[in-house]
Amino acid sequence: PTPSSQLTSQTSPSARADSDHRRLVHAVNVTKAFHGTEVLKGIDMDVHKGEVVCLLGPSGSGKTTFLRCINQLETIDGGRIWVDDNLMGYVDKGGRLHRLHDKEIAAQRRDIGMVFQRFNLFPHMTALQNVMEGPVQVKGANKGQAKARAKELLDRVGLGDKHGAYPAQLSGGQQQRVAIARALAMDPKLMLFDEPTSALDPELVGEVLDVMKELAKAGMTMIVVTHEMSFARDVADRVVFMDAGVVVEEGPPSQCIDAPQHERTRRFLQRMR
Ligand code: ADP
C-alpha cells in the first residue's frame, strides 16, 4: 500500500475526520443487498461542505439506494458512512447490526433534508402549514417563529402568493417547491434530491431546477440524483457516474460529461441525448 492509504487505514475515524474539516459525507466501501442481490458493491464517496454532487447513471444502478443509505432509510450491509463525523448504522463482518438508537437516527435525519420524486405533501394542510410542520412538531419550534420562517422560505422558492393554497390547488412544480421549502425549514446541513423533476411535466421542470440552482449558489451541500444533464453540467461541482452498483467514473462535469473516459459512461450519455 502507498503511505497515504496506510495512514488512512491506521488512523481512527475521528482523526481522519479532523484531517479534513470540509468533509460532510464520507462513505467507504458501502455495500447493500436486497434478497441476496448486491445493489451497492463497494461505494466510496466523499462530499465536501458546500459542494454539489450529481449522481448520474442508468436506472437500477443503485443511486436511490445510496441516497437512502445516507439518510438511514436503509441500513448498509458493509462499509461505513459518516455524515458530519457521525457514524451511521451498519452491519459488521459477523452479521451483527450496529444500529443507532432511534433518537440518534432522528437527530441525524433532522440534519439531512430529502426531496423525493413524489412530493408527499400533507394534502389536508396548506403550503404554509406543510412547511411549518417539521420545525413545530419535530424540533418544538415556537409557532410564530416557525410561521415567519415558513413564509420566508415560500417566498424564496417563488411561492409568495401561495401560502394558503392546498397541495391539490398547486401544480406539480409548485408542490415540489413547497417540498423543498419544507426540507429547508429544518435547517439541514445536507440536502439529498432523488430525481426531483422526473415526475413533472416538462414545462414545470425549469422552475424546480432554478430553485435548486439558487440553493447551490447560496452554498448548500447537495447530492442530486438526476437525469437533467444541463443541470449537472451547469451546477454540479462534481459528477459521479454509477452503473450496476459501482462508481464507474467521477470528476468535474467538463470531464465526466463532456469527455468521459469509460465506455459505460459514454454509452449512457449517448442514450441521454
Ligand atoms: P437507481 O436509483 O439507480 O435507479 P435503485 O437504487 O433504485 O437504482 O435500485 C437499485 C436496485 O435495487 C434495483 O435493481 C432495484 O430493483 C433494487 N431495489 C431497490 N430498493 C429495493 C427494495 N426495497 N427491495 C428490493 N429491491 C430493491
UniProtKB/TrEMBL annotation:
Keyword Transport on entry: yes
Keyword Transcription regulation assigned: no
Low complexity bias spans: 4-15
Cellular compartments annotated: Cell membrane
Classification via InterPro entries: AAA+_ATPase, ABC_ATPase_HisP-typ, ABC_transporter-like_ATP-bd, ABC_transporter-like_CS, MetN_ABC_transporter-like, P-loop_NTPase
Stretches assigned to the ABC transporter domain: 25-269
Keywords of the record: ATP-binding, Cell membrane, Membrane, Nucleotide-binding, Transport
Designated name of the protein: ABC-type polar-amino-acid transporter
Upper lineage: Bacteria, Bacillati, Actinomycetota, Actinomycetes, Micrococcales
